[in-house]
Each structure stands twice: as structure tokens, then as C-alpha cells.
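Two folds, back to back.
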Amino acid sequence: MADIFDVIADGTRRDILRLLLDRSSAGQNGTSVSQIVHELGVSQPTVSKHLKVLREAELVSVREEGQHRYYSLSPEPLDEIDDWIVPFLAADEDVAALTTASSLPDSAAHAADVVGRAAASAKHALENALRKLPGR
């Protein structure tokens, strides 16, 4: 399988993923190649080439109905990116906490830091758990 970072490095593939996310959020059960071509304004061969890469990376699933293929987002492989980037986001939160904490008493700053870290960790764990539920 291709490195997930290489797969999402291409802007057209990110546009396709965003389109599929938006459509799934709107309750659509799959998006045809022709709909993707129309929405993005790129050629059908270009879309097909990128969909092949996304399929191989397991970021999209395909459902066939007759001669039509409908693509849906499969976000599970993005967990690898999420796991990689969260520590960097936490580092940003630490810097923000330090600048805010200077105006708080030490005990309040420490409590705020502990609560903030716990909330961020719980949010991350909950989002990962929800993504793994069937039908999500």
C-alpha cells in the first residue's frame, strides 16, 4: 500500500476526498465518477486515475450498479495521519497554555493544563472510536 502521506499530497485527490466527505455528510450513498468530474471540472481520465490511487490506499470504496460506479469515503486510513499530527497540535496547545497561564495563579494554571490535556485526549479518543463504528 502506498504511503498515506504521498496519497493525500496531491491536491486533486484531496479535492476528491473533500467532495466525498461533503456528499456523505449530506446523506448521499456514493458519488458517481461523472458527478466528481462535473463538480471538480477535471477530465474523466484524470478523476479515474486519482480514484484508482485512492482505492489502492483504501481511502475510498466503490459500489457498482450496472455500468455505473459510486464512490464513498473510507476515512479509516486517515487515522495514521491523525495519530501522527495530534502530538504537534498538543504542542501548539502547550504554547497557548503557557501564554495564558502566566496571568493565572500557579494552581489554576496547572488545573487548566490538566483539564485541557484530558479534554483533548478524550476528544481524540472519542473521534477515533466513532470513526470505527459500522456505518460511519
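---
second:
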Amino acid sequence: MPWSDVVLVLLAGVGAGTINTIVGSGTLITFPTLLLLGIPPVTANISNNIGLVPGSLTGSIGYRKELEGAGPDLRRLAPMSFLGGAVGAVLLLVLDPRLFKAVVPVLILLGIALVVAGPRINDWTARRREAAGREGEGDHRVAMQVGAFGSGVYGGYFGAAQGIILMGILGALSQQPLQRLNGYKNVLATIVNAVAAVVFLLVAVDRIDWLVVLLIAVGSTVGGVLGSTVGRRLPQNVLRAAIVVIGLVAVTRMVVAG
């Protein structure tokens, strides 16, 4: 890999780690970047997933203050994210790689749409929470578990905008403060990425680009620290704009290349 590509992947990892921690769509930075460099879609997805695990972990640690007393909720949700991530990873491996290549542009566009709709999702969530108050919160626990499983399947299979999906589900069904839910999101996404990474390491080691893994791991670790500290003060509109541009360029390249 040329040095220019090494630097590009490393910087993409930093951006993804930062964005994953504060917004939740960092895969839309790294994955399209890898596609632009000519890495096959399934190899890019698997290598990207493994590389982002350290960044997800540092981002979760950065939110440890918001997670104080979160044990009961996480004990209910974490197993569902674990199962969902495993199912999604297995689906990626057993389904025809040509299917994944065919649906990747659609998945990227879905992720971009979720990123663009993120502020409206947040506004809707805030209005719903204000109207509902704290009544009936316990009634939504099963729905939250189902949502964690579903987003885990999506995250294990692809992962882009997994955090936005989680925040939409958790924000709509829980009355916890949003910063606390962002901490939940970071922990659950870490679980999904980690269990998917274990599946890939066990049965798909031949599809892993270890240099890509190393570069994204280093970059995302730095980004996770940045995202949980200074990243909270970054303009989210700027981050969303960067995601949209990179994602659209990658989709255009894939469609043109056929």
C-alpha cells in the first residue's frame, strides 16, 4: 500500500472513531475510503469492523461517567446486541459475496439518509419524550431489547449508521437522559463490533487485510478519545457533511465501475 494510502486510511480511522463516539456513523468514513482504494467490499467490511473495535472501546470508556448506575439496563440490552451482532456477522459470511457487493450502494445510501435525518430523528425523540414523561417506561423494555437485537444484526452485517439507529430506538423508548443513552449506544455498538470481529477471526481470517485493520485500529483509538472529549464540541453539521460527501463519492465510483 502506498504511503499516501496509509495516511488516508489512518486519518479515516481517526475520523470514524471520533464520529462513532459522538454521532454514530463512522463506518461511512472508513468503508467508502477503503472501497475508493480498490479493496474488495467484503474484505473492506470485515477489516473495517475489526479495526473499529478499539475505537468503540475507548469511546465507551470516555462515557463512563454517564454510565454510572447503568448496569440493570445494560444487562438487559447487551445480550441482545451480542446475539444480533453474531447473527449479522454469520449472514455476511454465508450469503453470496456478490449479494453484499450488490446491496452495498443501497446500504451506504441508507446510512447517508439516516445521517441526514439524524437531527429530525432527535427532534422527534425529544418531542416524544417530553409528551410521554416517565409514564410507562417499563412497558418498553421488551421493545428496547428487540430493537437492540435488530440493530445488532444490521451492525454485524454492515454497521454504517448503527449508532444512529440505536439512538433512535433508545431515545424513543427510554426516558434516560440523551447523553446517558449515547453512552449506552457506545457500549452496545462495541459489543456488536467485538462479537462480529470474533466471528470473522474464527472463520474468515483469509478475508482480513491486516494492514487495514492496524491502521484503522490505531486511528479509531485516537478518534475514540477525541470523540469522548473535544469531539463533543465539534459542529455535527460539518461531520454529517463530510460523511455524505465521502459516501456519495464511494457509491458513484461503485456504480460507474459496475
